[in-house]
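User: I've been going back and forth on whether these two constructs are worth ordering. Before I decide, could you fold them both?

Assistant: Sure. I'll take them in the order you sent them. The first construct and its structure tokens:
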Amino acid sequence: MPPRESLGPLTGLRDFVDRLAASSPARLALLAFFSVIVVFTLLLSLPFASADGQVTPLHESLFTATSAVCVTGLTVVSTAAHWSAFGHVLILLAIQIGGLGILTLASVLSLAMSRGLGVRGKLIAREAMNNAGRLGEVGGLLRVVVVTSAVVEGVLALFLAPAFIAQGEQFWPAVWHAVFYAISSFNNAGFTPHSNGVVPYQYDLWVLVPLMAGGFIGSLGFPVLLVFLRFKARARFWTLHAKLTVVVSFILLVVGAILWGAMEWNNARTIGGMQPGEKVVQAVFASVMTRSLGFNLVDMNHLTPSTLLLSDALMFAGGGSASTAGGIKVTTVAVMFLAIVAEARGDRDVRAFGRTVPQEIMRLAISVIVMAATLLMVACMLLLAISGQSLDRVLFDSISAFATVGLSTGLTSELPPAGVYVLTALMFFGRVGTITMATALSLRQRRSLYHYPEERPIIG
């Protein structure tokens, strides 16, 4: 093997990354996200990143950086009022980097420089996309990630810019806002450069429809988009992952819209005073937003308790695997539902679309759900002790942080620094924790040389 090129003082760092990638790609993912969050925290702490020229406190800059890199959208300060133009650019850059994924971006840069990925680079990129696709397909998948992101965000911006101009904005501010919303929506981030968010556009379909479309497309995941590009509408050629993601995503979208609309139909504090057609649009918009996007047209504190609980469930489910959305992922929900149906029918195998779901996938789904529920329980207990607020508000904002949604009852901005740090950790582990654990468990296969006798404990 020829000697490797020296990078000077960076040679040691490269060798460390190589060893870490070979021994634990999941650990490398955690380190990469953490490092980028630290960088953006330092940049957002600079005086010229804030509108008033003052240094932003650590807990506020760290929370904003984590929320942007983890494409969440929760804020402890007003994005429009607190940050300067430089701060807005930093937030937008953090959203784009976080949406694509740190390791995906690193692999793309490697591909651009070397005109091809080695086996190690493909392994790293495959890890970044949750082991989506076969090893030889990773290079193509990376190109799809970048090109698709650029095309979708560009198309969204082209639709949004004229809508903002029609609302009375000047040309260049309208273009900037269009680009900001396009990137924020496709990456399911939920950040907004306007002080009132998207509330002023709650009757403007030229704004609402592109935002919903961008968020929904981004929530499907790049492996699904790759299948679409290859096979178009020929669903019989789709992978099981793509079929489950699309079917469950549409089910959650439709059922969520129907239930949300029914629960809020006569609520005068939200949509009760609107026309029927407007209520339907609001319900569909809310169903898409609670899946991970995070823009809101109504005050979350004005929702009925049943609607808050529905929103909790939709946020917890999230979007597709290897997507810009959060949550436990719709395929996890699908696998668990299929397992329940198979158990109720007495089937030994869990089947879907003519395929059998392996036992290890079901164990993995259970592990992800239990880990997520445990993490949320611990976070809620801490926040209840810190804030003294009601459980419904604490649970809502906690799930929103974990599922990287960005909706809030206002609790997030009211928390003391200790509570802000709890939500910061929840966003970080919600974004990379379940993926890292799923990958680590799927790669950790031990061969046992013996088998204990079986004995059935009583369940239920």
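The second construct, handled the same way:
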Amino acid sequence: MAQHDALTDLPNRVLLRDRLEQALSITRRGGPHLAVLMLDLDRFKEINDTLGHPTGDALLQAVAARLCTCIRDTALIARLGGDEFAVIEHMSKPVAEAAALAERIKRALSEPFDLGDHQVITGTSIGIAVAPTDGINSDQILKAADLALYRAKSSGRGTFHFFEPELDQRMHARRNLERDMRHALVSGEFELHYQPFVDLKSGDISGLEALLRWHHPQRGLVSPAEFIPLAEETGLIVPIGEWVLRTACAEAAKWPADLKVAVNLSPAQFRSKELVPVVFGALAASGIASQRLELEVTETAIMHDSEAVFAALGQLHKLGVRIALDDFGTGYSSLSFLQKFPFDKIKIDRSFVNELLSAKEESRLIARAVVRFAVSLGKTTTAEGVETKEQLDILREEACTEMQGYYFSRPKCSAEIAQMVGAEAVSAPVATRDWPAEDRRKIQSAAG
């Protein structure tokens, strides 16, 4: 009982380590190579959350049984916990044989599972490490397989990846970036830039979108594409998102009262359950009217937990906060979202704006159809990524409400924006040390 998993009756982590050490000792003495495969089920949490834990448990049992059909008698399968499994096996040609085994497992687990009242479709991501090339003891080889699994999952899931030495280097770089990001939040290295929305009828600025920038003391300007995904993955986006909301509202308080400020929200902010009080606190601290705050939400954010997201958006909408559906047209369920929640604005993704002048007639027609459809819904429509007068003319012809892009202005720092809109430059709370003591303790705790 101490060495086997109670649910699947497979060896557990304790027995795996024992057998792994025995197998590695054979390899170290000149025996055949040892392949270690780490497996993670795709979408298991989603299945567990939507269909319930009994179905999730039944799926794990069925996966264990199916895995046993994929391996030779000399291999060992273990359940490490949750939806993670491992396979170890001696191989004379480890690269070819491990790849073939990974393919067999992928095919087997991609077939539907009949679980009583439910037919479930999942899949697996697999990381592969080989001893002695990737390590000679259990800690090294398990770490290598785990890093390979992380790479496989980050590549889009449903695939396998062998360990490579640079994966370890990347993980070290990732940890360093995460550490620096935690420090940046407390020490005031983040800054907001703003890109204007322009009213296509009047030509006036109608609002500005807040865009996060990070000035690292050694690395200089760090690209949002580099640190935002890591912030999402680690949960740091929650305290960073609170900083963005507070700072954007504080700076907008110094602008003319008819200008809106738009802030992007991430799925993690909805999962934190603190979004509504955070927004309320930012509005109260800055004193701006709730109608001046516009929260941009992507379909991805809604799809993670639609009921909780719609409930939070409903509360914010009642406060008077405007809600914008960002990246419109790039998801597969925009129409159902638009029917379910009364968004105030639709932001037409730049990919469609780029195609308005495409040489391909089909691409151009699809782009114009998306713009027309968005406009026909009667909401405010903002076209993103406008870079030419020709694009602007088409958008105006299609009755689009607003445009945003380099044709009018690149993102600018708060001092430049203050000059542009005729407002006083404002020293916003750039570091958590400027916040009230209670809020400072909360944000520093969240940032580690």
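Notes on the second construct follow. Residues 425-436, 439-444 have pLDDT under 50 and may be disordered. The CA atoms of residues 92 and 404 lie 59 Å apart.
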